[in-house]
Design brief:
Strand content: 15-25%
Distance between the termini: 17 Å
Structural class: alpha/beta
Order of helices and strands: EHEHHEHEHEEEHEHEHEHEEHHH
Bound molecules: 3-isopropylmalic acid, magnesium ion
CATH class of the largest domain: Alpha Beta
Shape: globular
Number of strands: 12
Largest sheet: 10 strands, mixed
Length: about 350
């Protein structure tokens, strides 16, 4: 097949991890006979420097006409002054909104060979396999903002339609898994959460009677996630709770650098990005973990291009590379030799040539 992919390297370690991801994508393309036409575009802080806009119109247009968008990471201290007029993050939020990708899937699965890389006890982690479905284009991220000398306001709004559609995505996913859905809110305090709980309950009972739904307050969820993570299957939650809880959940897998994400809307086009940020502290040193990006490419193959076999092949190659001992510094234990970003890419490519 032929597919057009818009590639936004972004800032910090973004371009470094994207480079390794693209080598893997190319290898998949040549072994399965697909042609991936890549367009590299300026985005984030790099685009602010180049033209004053984190999401230039030409970049947005290329994303809207591509089959999928692959993104590294954005942001950094250079663009983070408290009084900054434009920020890289505004470009990312606008891109998510313009693409209509309201459902952000963040799978957290433990590679058993990395069980020692986590700060959490192995017996708690064994068998962890869950997916967050984070609402991505609503809530406090997108509400009205106001600021004067003595106060600041961020408005949080959710509509029935927004909650219905994200509940459906999560419940459908649960049907393909262990049929267990946990909806996370703060309904003891927030009106938006009371709406969320009501709508999620109604959609589940009307449309997904085969899925078990339970509700959990976000503070309790933060605790249960590290107390008994194995009990979770699919978790659905609003934008900001999902942002916070998925960083926490990444520790179940061992490192933020391992986790991929897919942001999907009603069509097939999606936005794929590792969940980590631009990591300015290690940018340029060639030591970032490219696994989150490589696994995001597997999600791209599966969700936007319907190339299931190719996605599985890439995922198996990543597992084999890790089982073979490939470790970037974020997942290396003391005494283990750590690989560079490029060497980790090589390890996955080597495993790919044996699997594929
Ligand atoms: C994420 C990031 C972004 C978010 C930032 C960079 C705006 O933390 O994708 O999790 O908060 O959504
Ligand atoms: Mg985040």
């Amino acid at each position: 097949m032929k597919a057009r992919i818009a590639v936004l390297g972004g800032d910090g370690i973004g371009p470094e991890v994207i480079a390794e991801g693209l080598r893997c994508l190319e290898a998949i393309g040549s072994s399965f006979g697909h042609e991936f036409a890549l367009t590299h575009l300026p985005f984030g802080g790099a685009a602010i420097d180049a033209c004053g806009d984190p999401l230039p119109e030409s970049t947005l247009h290329a994303c809207l006409t591509a089959d999928a968008v692959l993104l590294g990471a954005i942001g950094g201290p250079k663009w983070s002054a408290p009084d900054a007029k434009v920020r890289p993050e505004q470009g990312l939020l606008r891109l998510r909104k313009e693409l209509g990708v309201y459902a952000n899937l963040r799978p957290v699965k433990l590679h058993s060979c990395l069980i020692g890389a986590s700060t959490i006890k192995p017996e708690v982690l064994e068998g962890v396999d869950l997916v967050f479905v984070r609402e991505l284009t609503g809530g406090i991220y997108f509400g009205e903002k106001k600021r004067d000398a003595l106060s600041a306001v961020d408005v949080c709004t959710y509509t029935v339609t927004e909650v219905e559609r994200i509940t459906r995505v999560a419940a459908r996913l649960a049907q393909q898994r262990r049929r267990k859905l946990t909806s996370i809110d703060k309904s003891n305090v927030l009106e938006t959460s009371r709406l969320w709980r009501e709508v999620a309950t109604r959609v589940r009972s009307a449309e997904f009677p085969d899925v078990a739904l339970d509700h959990m307050l976000v503070d309790a969820a933060a605790m249960h996630l590290i107390r008994r993570p194995r009990d979770f299957d699919v978790l659905v939650t609003e934008n900001m709770f999902g942002d916070i809880l998925t960083d926490e959940a990444s520790m179940l897998a061992g490192s933020l650098g391992l986790l991929p994400s897919a942001s999907l809307g009603d069509g097939k086009r999606g936005l794929y990005e590792p969940i980590h940020g631009s990591a300015p502290d290690i940018a340029g040193r060639g030591i970032a973990n490219p696994v989150g990006t490589i696994m995001s490419i597997a999600m791209l193959l599966r969700h936007s291009l319907e190339l299931t076999r190719e996605a599985e092949t890439l995922e198996v190659a990543v597992s084999r590379a890790l089982e073979g001992g490939a470790r970037t510094p974020d997942i290396a234990m003391s005494g283990e030799r750590a690989l560079t970003t490029r060497e980790m890419g090589d390890a996955v490519l080597g495993a790919l040539s044996r699997v594929g």
